[in-house]
Design goal:
With about 220 residues, the protein is low in regular secondary structure. The longest helix is centred in the C-terminal third of the chain and has 9 residues. A two-stranded antiparallel sheet has the order 1-2.
Length: about 220
């Protein structure tokens, strides 16, 4: 089985009903394809190039815009500096496309956790966080630093640029609309037409979460 994606012919996983791209041995990662791990002792991240992950020295292309440390998306630049990204085809939506030309909010199918009866989306290894998926966490590349990397491979202390809340004197990070949660940044429910604040898993409000759990 094969499929054309972005003009290139790709082989699909040989497992019945699976639409993932084949990695090696005719199967995808979920169904047993072996992936190279970083050669650095004790590291379980996937090797990028040179046998190591980004944290341990794999070279990644940075945006060609002067002073920018973001990773290249296309055309030698990051999305901030003009890399073209596909947006959801739903009228007026500015979310990025996931599958089928639309974002998740407008119908893109998300892979669900393989644990029986679970409706959470897959995080890693075919399962959600609740059922064992370990989140990928990158640490600051400065020697001896154990802070999380924010952008450019470094933490705030070592130069990562972050946007602060626009409210005067507030040191919190901006969440949405230039403000932090305390000063008005609110994420609305992803259910069509709902303007309630999203407080539950899956980006929905309490009432729509209750509806999902009753199904």
């Amino acid at each position: 089985r094969s499929v054309h994606r972005h003009g290139a012919k790709k082989k699909l996983c040989s497992r019945k009903g699976c639409t993932n791209i084949s990695q090696n041995g005719g199967v995808c990662k979920r169904h047993g394809a072996k992936v190279k791990r970083c050669s650095s002792e004790g590291c379980t991240q996937r090797a990028q190039n040179g046998g190591v992950c980004k944290r341990h020295g794999a070279k990644v292309k940075l945006c060609s815009s002067e002073g920018c440390t973001n990773h290249v998306k296309s055309g030698g630049v990051c999305t901030k500096h003009g890399a073209k990204v596909k947006l959801c085809s739903f009228l007026g939506c500015t979310n990025y496309v996931k599958t089928g030309g639309v974002c998740r909010r407008h119908g893109a199918k998300a892979k669900l956790c393989s644990s029986q009866g679970c409706k959470n989306t897959v995080q890693k290894g075919g399962v959600c966080k609740r059922h064992g998926a370990k989140p990928v966490v990158y640490l600051c590349k400065n020697v001896g630093c154990t802070n999380f990397a924010l952008n450019g491979g470094v933490c705030r202390r070592h130069g990562a640029k972050t946007k602060l809340c626009s409210s005067e004197g507030c040191p919190n990070l901006a969440q949405k609309g230039g403000a932090c949660k305390r000063h008005g940044a609110k994420k609305t429910c992803s259910s069509k037409g709902c303007t309630n604040q999203a407080t539950q898993k899956g980006g929905v409000c309490k009432s729509h979460w209750a509806e999902r759990t009753r199904v």
